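ingest -> validate -> predict -> emit
validate: passed (alphabet ok, no gaps, 142 aa)
predict: started
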Amino acid sequence: MDDTRAIENLIYRYASLVDAGDFAAVGELFASGAFAGSGGVARGAPEVAGMLQSTVIRYDDGTPRTKHVTTNVSISVTGETAESRAYFTVLQAVPGFPLQTIAAGSYRDTFTRSAGEWQFTERRATVDLVGDVSHHLRTKRS
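emit:
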């Protein structure tokens, strides 16, 4: 598999794992990396998994009942490093909350190849458009 396809698959794997509610596996994608978003920066598998577990609501089926759609993927590989940009759209449907777009934004990613495998070095997620996330994110209580 060529480098671009391997990185693209890694980008899509992130979306699949979040939608499956497998936050431990999402964390493993960042075992040697960091995830930066509106909640700050989480580094390494335990922090990334913990950030998702504490903020994202999971339903009886163990999932957040979302679909992360990743588009406009652009990847540039230079030797053992790479970077990409992409758009994301998050759809959600739960009982009493019909299917709708709850968020959209962009990813800026960097990657490193180690032992022949590509891994996230950093993901910067920027949310540009926000809908009703009340069924997706936990609210902080004072």
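Helices lie at 3-20, 23-29, 44-55.
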